[in-house]
Amino acid sequence: MIVVDVLSQDPDAGFASCQKMAVAIAATMKSKGKCKPEDLLDRRFSHEEIKRCWDVAHCFARFDLTEA
Question: For residues 33 and 53, what is the distance between their CA atoms, to the nearest angstrom?
């Protein structure tokens, strides 16, 4: 899964963290059947990252799983 950041070329800005989170959410959903924000703490995401990216990343992960 690749999320394109059309606003920035900086890999640490924009959607880069959302892309990493979407991949982690999809992997968790594949193994557990679901993923909650708290599950991402075990995957080394901070509370702030989860708060900022959860909605977008969760949507991307669900879309990616339906396309698989």
Answer: 20
